Model the fold of this input.
Amino acid sequence: FIKGEVLDYSINLRTARPGTYIKIPYELTLTESLSDFWQSSFHSQDRIHTSTPFARALGLQDRVMPFSLVLFLTSAMSHEDSAKVQVGFGRCIYQWPVFAGDTVRKTFQVLSVRNTSDGNHSIIHFACNLINQRNRVC
Done:
């Protein structure tokens, strides 16, 4: 007999302050099929993403997951259902290659919080990181 438990890892953004650090408990193991699906939807001519021999000639272990996929995962592995507008990117860096077989998780830190002029909404800036199974920031 297995008994489930509902976990609540949400944070109260009304009390979030700059410096608040949040670890997201979800992990995702990336597969070749995910990369293939992404490439079929958002094709790239960049051989580092499409050619294993080319990537290995550069000294990499395999072809690298596309930056657009890694950026999407960095923003999408957590979300706020009641957000009116939630995505904007700035200063994005692909720091470490992500390969099929890597398991990633997300962390983020609150950088700033401010209310809109009408006082009914907040604008929150986060620094988001995608971390692989070796604890390297991707």
Q: What stands out?
A: The two ends are 39 Å apart (CA to CA). The mean pLDDT is 84. DSSP finds four helices and three strands in the chain.
